[in-house]
Amino acid sequence: MKKISCLLTLIVLTLLVAGCKNNEPKDLAKFEKHLDQTQQKEAKMKQTLNHLDLKQIDQLKEQQMTDKNKKEFNELQTDINSKLMPQMKAYEKSAKKLPAESSKVKHLKQTYLQGVKQKKQKVKDLKTFVDLCNQSVKANEDILDYTKLFEKKRSLMEENVDKANKHGNKQDVETFTKKVENNNKELKNTAENHINDQNPKKRKKAIEEHIMPLIDKQIKDLNQTTITDSNVNEARKNAIEMYYSLQNYYETRQDTMGITQRLAKIDLQNLPKKGEDLENDDKAFDKELNQLKS
């Protein structure tokens, strides 16, 4: 009885294996039919990549950002976010839906999906690079604006002090100017001692742990100083606004350090500039497909 049972099991397994082998060509044909649709979505994504003006990326290393290429980079960012990324998403979604039932076709699908994953990462790196470039430009513009605001408030503060010297309370003027001079000296020394390190992480940490708390302390101290003269009060108001602009300046410098660190991790040479730059990611799949069909 046991021999008969074993024999029947062997026959069933043999039939199952034979059935799987017979189904494999049909499974592959079904896979390839849907693959055509998936590759159409890929072709659309590659076409968009071809139409993007990506030569700017290589040129950016050789020249400063100007108003012209700043505008072009903004347009590039818009095209990547509104066209390329949605097309990449549609391509990936279609690839994940490729039918596969037999073990070999399932393995083939996984190989294909691995290639899609690599393409997606390259496109994401391109998007990240362009996003970071535009963030860097915006941050540097903000730094320039905060520097101008700082100078403007300092000039107004000095005008207020001059008026107070001519018409106001000499004691208030002396108290205020001494505080501001000491503050400036303390800020200068702290900056020289802590944020001249070449390491961006250490500079960021120094700003957070030394510069920002010091400016907070100086603003609080100025606010609590007793002043009766109206011109000196105006000078104090402008000095506090000057320190706030300095805080914004350093906060934005922290941002630019973070952006610089992230940009340094991106290999410009590996960023896709044309659709053909993604074709290497299909080599393993093409080889496996040809072997399966032979």
Describe this structure in words.
- The protein folds into 2 domains: 28-135 and 267-291; 140-263, no CATH class.
- It has helices at 2-51, 55-59, 67-96, 103-167, 170-194, 200-224, 230-264, 283-293.
- It is mainly alpha-helical.
- The longest helix is centred in the middle third of the chain and has 65 residues, at 103-167.
- It is 84% helix and 0% strand.
- Helix 5 runs parallel beside helix 7.
- Mean pLDDT is 88; it is low at 10-19.
- The chain has 8 helices and no strands.
Quickly list its features:
84% helix, single chain, 8 helices, 2 domains, signal, lipoprotein, rod-shaped, coiled coil, 294 residues
Low-confidence parts lasting 5 or more residues at pLDDT below 50? 10-19
Mean pLDDT: 88
Spatial separation of the terminal alpha carbons: 43 Å
By DSSP (H or I, 4+ residues per run), the number of helices equals 8
* Structural class label: mainly alpha
Total E-strand runs: 0
- In terms of quaternary structure, the protein is single chain
Q: Report strand %.
A: under 5%
Return the string of H and E elements.
HHHHHHHH
Query: Could you estimate the helical fraction of the residues in percent?
Result: over 70%
Number of domains: 2
Principal-axis shape equals rod-shaped
Query: C-alpha Rg, in Å?
Result: 33 Å
Note the main sheet.
none
InterPro entries: EMYY_lipop (IPR048013)
Protein name: EMYY motif lipoprotein
Coiled coil: 28-55
Keywords: Coiled coil, Lipoprotein, Signal
Quick recap:
The protein has 294 residues and is mainly α. Helices cover 84% and strands 0% of the residues. The protein has 2 domains: 28-135 and 267-291; 140-263, no CATH class.
